[in-house]
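Sharing a chain and its predicted structure for anyone who wants a worked example. Both blocks are below, sequence first, tokens second.
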Amino acid sequence: MTASIIVEGLEVVFDRFRALKGVSLEVREGESYGLVGESGSGKSTLLRAITGLAPVASGTVTVNGKTLGKTRDKAFYRDVQMVFQDPYGSLHPRQTVDRLLQEPLAVHGIADGERRIERALDEVGLGKGFRFRYAHQLSGGQRQRVAIARALILEPSLLLLDEPTSALDASVQAEVLNLLEEVRRRRKLTFLMVSHDLAIITHMCERLMVMQNGEAVETLSASQLIGHRVSEDYTRNLLRASEGFVRV
């Protein structure tokens, strides 16, 4: 299986603070890969470095066989889309769903907008009735569905998911996670997913990397984590801290 993302020796520095310290990973095409660790471990910074939103001091990022420079072109953003943590912050509250979905199509000069908008809304379980509602009229779960639709509308091959359900209540979380799983299966997408919730990661991902203080601690399969077949004390401590995840 070919690699969708290869990160090698990635360093990210903010005002002399090393947010990422030589991180490397490989995500296979069609795989769902998780990043776990405490807040401040560098998980979201890694996603932002891949998308060009964080300053890379050294190292390389290769996506779908192309090694990226300091800037990302339109072709990159057609192929790689990101879903952010907070559906209240990622959507303009005074824009209609239609306008939110039209915007990426206009930026990329895509003509078949009508078909794509209808398909994206159907795919996330909203349908045409939501098209001319305003974002501020929607619930948190509905907003996150719109955010997912906006990511899908360019028909990318890779979704970067930054805590996509942490701002939602438990019942809505499950619905959104099931939606993402179904979308990945149907579209044969690759996922790179950040979460602090080990239960979510083991449900959604085949493999995962544990991060601490900007470094990779260890790489595991989901079954290894569930079975507590881990090598590092930090990972064991994460398991203990995940109340109700599995009995330690």
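Comments welcome. The longest strand covers residues 3-14.
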